[in-house]
Amino acid sequence: MALKESLDKFKKQQEMCQTTLSSIKANSKPTPRVTPYNPANAKSAAPAVKFSSDTERLQHINNIRKAPVGAQIKRVINLLLETRQAFTAEQINEACYVDVNANKAVFDSLRNNLKVYYDGKRFSYKSKYDVKDKSQLLKLIRKFAEGIAVIDLKDAYPSVMDDLQALKVAGEIWLLSNIDSQEDIAYPNDPRVPIRVDDDLKLLFRGIELPRDMIDIEKDLQKNGMKPATNTAKRRAQAQVHGISNKPKQKKKKHEISKRTKLTNSHLPELFKNLS
Fold first, then answer.
1. Which helix (H) or strand (E) is 252 found in, with range?
2. N or C terminus of the chain with fewer C-beta within 10 Å?
3. Distance separating alpha carbons of residues 30 and 104, to the nearest angstrom
4. pTM above threshold 0.85
């Protein structure tokens, strides 16, 4: 009897526990999923500005401004030449770190430089000849019948050297080298200005007999104020030191065709008209 009562009591406790668990499960809210912290997903804060991070640039600017006046002027002129634009003093400072306003020596040298044009506010590059394209370049060269040095035209505008070659190929100009300076000279080749040479001058030119020895030719050139391109005396002296003979090689005697010569082209009789 006591055992049965104990079993009934145990069953009631089990039912109560089951009811309680069901009630808790029905009323409970889902536990939110906790995502582990990941620094990469967090919003990155703005990095703190460190003055040391700009040290290299500031040192570079300081070195430029402490450089000699000539070095700073060259830096500005290179800027004006490459860009072909007009810059104020403030724009020059921003572009190449040369503080024109803070350095009176730099400002005065830049303003009075032959390669710089200053309009009172802006600085720009100034070439020797103010030409902008190929047609203007050709007009300029035609004004110099005695020739114009190419070195004076190189900085006129960026593509001037290409235009010079194009004019040469088109036969509009001549590009010849100066023997003394080894520099190219541009000469006009204008077909509207034909050059006539008198027959007497042609005969005089053709009648001049040149010396047979190259040393004599070089001496005559020097007498007339010209520099020979060769130095035969020096070349011969060096040849003697090294045991090289200066005597011209004797030409081999040309064998003439005779009756004894074996003829292989007998089908071409015109070749043997002068057979001795």
1. none
2. N
3. 79
4. no
